[in-house]
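Appendix B.2, paired examples.
Example (i):
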Amino acid sequence: MTTERSNEFRQSIVTTCPELSGRERFKAHLRKVGSGEQTSRGMSREESADALHLILTAQASPAQIGAFLIAHRIRRPEPQELAGMLDTYRVLGPKLKSANGQKRPICFGMPFDGRKRTAPIYPLTALVLLNAGQPVVLQGGQRMPIKYGVTTEELFKALGLQLQGLSIANLEAGFQQHGLALIYQPDHFPLAESLISYRDDIGKRPPVASLELLWTAHQGKHLLVSGFVHPPTEERAWKALALAGETNLVTVKGLEGSTDLPISRACITSRVQNGKPERLILHPRNHGCFSQDVEWSNLTEWSEQAMEALHNRGPLSQPLLWNAGTYLWLAGLADNLDEGIAHAEKCLQSGLAQTTLEQLIAWRETII
């Protein structure tokens, strides 16, 4: 979204029915989404932006917020509503910028409540991409409802890289120098952190969980990769992101809704450029990467497997080759998928991904 467009929505948030208090304004939004099957209506983009703004700034009451989140989940957010929520996240949330001349990053959108069934691959994929000069933006928080799965911060910490406790200024400086950023919600977006208790109380993922797959704090050109589980979610994401001005994205039916590509089945993905989706069915069997997806056990076992994979060994090596090779290709760093896999294999066999990890650890140790 351009700065001018963001300013327009910031103004619309502030001026929507200014004569009413936040709670009174919120009642109108709640009536629209919670009136029942026959009379419930979708909100406009501006109304949805205002509703989330009132929630995050605690101008709506706890009872109103809980009622809204569960009613909106039952009815399912519409594309313009998701676009409005994105507008509010872009106004109130952290902002990350690339350095002049820095390559556009890949921004990965995955469930904030983590993973519990399958071993994550994306931290290792990120290291291969970084070694190839491809910046990566990740985001997440602490373990949270409803899944309480393992988080991005925990996974990197298990590799020796502490990404918690960085100011947004330090994070941006490190991103511009080394290419990696983790937008960590407790540090960088405390307003959104206030919704965790509601997630626990309602026992279901609220609409903001869908938003987390679509939002990125990065401003400027990037490739947005968004995970999904159900086909209707994917199509809704295309429409919402088109409204929000995202012109370059990939949607992935990944492991547990993440952006990790499975190796046990065909990978259902789509590339969307300038509003036009192109379906890409990727077959790991055709590229020598077919096997069972590795099950999640615990952080200790995962870290041992991860360090092996960084040298092209062990049970995570095949999933890593498949994922890193695919994303090298999608990022334009390889002419085809096989070339991307070969590039990833060379990086891992030479120990360059491990070297990249060590450089990041050394950088982090310089920051108090």
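Example (ii):
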Amino acid sequence: MSDETPRAGRRPQPDGPPDAAREAFELSGRLVLAGRYEEALAATGEAARLLRDGTASTPRPAATRPTDPGTAAVLAHVLVLRCEALAKLNRWDECLRTASEAVDRGRGQAVTAPFTAPLGATLLGLGTALWGLGRPQEALAATQESVDLHRQLAHADPAYRPQLANALNHLGVVLSRLGRHAEALDVTKESVALYRRLSSADPAAHAHGLAQAVNNLARRQAARNQRRRALRSAEEAVALYRRLALANPAVHRRDLAMALGNAARTHVGRAEALAAAAEAVAVLDELDRTEPGVHGALFADCLSLHAAALADLGRFREAAGVTTRAVAMMREQAALNPAARRGDLGVALAFHARVRAEAGIERAEALAAATEAVALLRGLAAEIPALYGPGLAEVLALEDRLRSAAP
């Protein structure tokens, strides 16, 4: 199940260019939030052009760096939004170039507000791009630097606490993906605590940030075997997202599906887990009909959870049909971004093999899937043993069992 990568969230609004440039910036943010990423690329391109020119009415050469503090800050945020859209579209090389430019522009200014705030946001974008390109240690360094900058800002001015909460949530995701689960849990708990204080003062403004953080807290608690706490957090995240999806289904139904998937993973009751996973798949089926391919990675994850819930109830043949679809989707995602998705594909293949072994069907296909999973997970376990080592050991044992049972 994918972690919920936190969105950029609300930012303190710097002084800056009026009219066309700011309108394009605000449109970019709305389009990214709505998941309309191709349109967001066009809007961010126009906003960046106007900002580099200074204003629409007083054009300057495109290469000129904006000198007005507000203009520079807004341009940095535009580049962050562009990076987010590129990441969602799996255009990782462009995402890295965009994030690198944004960070370079931030570092070219004095590290004082409003520049520290956009520099911190651009570092989060850089961390996302580096992770997507399979460079996890560099991603961690960029994300940690963002947290440090936002901590300084929030200490001086409480208005930056939402940015700190968001950066901590990002850091928890990166640490968890590196197998550093205890540290990930600590920073995610800090993020949730900050969001709770913010939400008590302004619930509407911070409902989405709180839901994201609580959803990720459930993952962190499950990774530390805190099953009861993980279930409470997962159920809280589902409740938060149900309210958000009721108010704005176009934006938050995908988020609800992700939270339902986490709930399915943490439920002790098998029937409850199956119900949550089935609802997540139903939501994503409907979204996929209107936005084909946009939700592929999450859809594949939720299909795998649905299959796992069926297998836990002994319904292995039904689970085998679901894993066939999940693996096909995950292959598509791995083809788009091998560095980021090979682990997910390896895990999906391992489960694909397991349900066939348990059902006693398609043994040759099960063995082929297990062998492919071993090849993928072996390399990952060498890079991040804490995260992939246990899974590799399990699929190696499964491969041996299938080989010994082969004619």
